[in-house]
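Whether sequence alone determines local backbone shape is best considered at the level of individual chains. Part of our work consisted of pairing the sequence of a single chain with a tokenised description of its backbone. This step matters because it turns folding into a mapping between discrete strings. For completeness, the protein is quoted in full, as a sequence line and a line of structure tokens:

_____
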Amino acid sequence: MLESKDNSPKYAPQFSPNSNAVAALRNSAMPAEQATIGRSLTIKGELSGSESIFIDGQVEGSINLPENRVTVGRNGSVEADINAREVVIMGKVHGNIICGDRVDIRAEGSLHGDVVAPRISVEDGAFLKGGVDIQKSAKKEDSVGAAKTAATPKAAAATAGV
């Protein structure tokens, strides 16, 4: 409360922001962490970018997000090859997956295709039809290979033809 010179109380104006204005301000100040393809959307073609994506609609073609996560929601249907850091499947995927970190197929998810990834998780009730190739991550292989080469200079010299 504010008081005037005559000691009568005056109320300070109260600001009650519109909830939509607050949400818009919050969204504009924060970078988008994940794009969403809604239930009623169908996309045909190549999907690429620099943010993670949640797919609850239909995608046909290819998905190339090697540094991000691709999540296929319960209503999602994907007929595409996927290249991503992490893939979470709760819907249906028909296509091959190349993953830099891990593939997670949840209980309600299904995958028809081959998987190449360092880690894979398949929950009870999930469906997987295809090949699985578990490979060490490239970062670990590079550092291990460099350490072995540095530890054995004679072997490195012999390989180089010296």
